[in-house]
Design a protein that fits this description.
Structural class: mainly alpha
Radius of gyration: 14 Å
Shape: globular
Number of strands: 3
Length: 165
């Protein structure tokens, strides 16, 4: 993945306001996170990229209706992959290693399957549209052919069942 600034949101990217709020909040709650709604036009606390991208502070994930779903999942997964003592210290930037970043990307794709109207295929297309870049050319190619290390990292930490893909 690259570290270039996020491009402008595209109308074709699925946003939080397009999916059932209760389903997203319940998904995050299963991982010990709270989903917080920020009103339109308001600053998103803990947003690394700036509005409309999701923000994170400890166990809280902040989004507006115009926040891309991939951003909500990505930032949430940054928190999910951290042990509780590190999670409590997070404000805005959660990653300190490439393996954690890769695990975050992999897990967000897996969790997208649990959100009605999202799914992994849609999420991967939105990730590509947003500007995630992988050496194989697409998020899907990375996920299917080059993410064994990320998958293994998650399994070793009991964050992903060995049978999940």
């Amino acid at each position: 993945m690259n570290d270039t600034p996020a491009p402008e949101s595209s109308a074709s990217v699925l946003c939080v306001g397009d999916i059932p709020w209760d389903a997203a909040a319940a998904l995050l709650a299963r991982h010990g996170l709270r989903l917080n709604h920020v009103d339109a036009g308001q600053k998103i606390p803990g947003s690394y990229w700036g509005e409309p991208e999701a923000g994170i502070i400890a166990c809280d994930v902040y989004v507006r209706d115009d926040t891309p779903v991939h951003s909500m999942l990505h930032e949430s997964c940054h928190l999910i992959v951290l042990p509780p003592e590190r999670r409590a210290q997070v404000h805005t930037d959660a990653t300190d290693s490439v393996p954690e970043e890769d695990a975050t990307c992999y897990l967000q794709i897996v969790l997208a399957e649990q959100l009605p109207g999202v799914g992994s295929a849609r999420l991967m297309a939105d990730m590509d549209s947003w500007g995630y870049t992988y050496r194989l050319g697409s998020t899907q190619a990375w996920f299917e052919q080059d993410a064994d290390d990320a998958r293994r990292w998650l399994i070793e930490r009991d964050l992903l069942p060995a049978t999940a893909s």
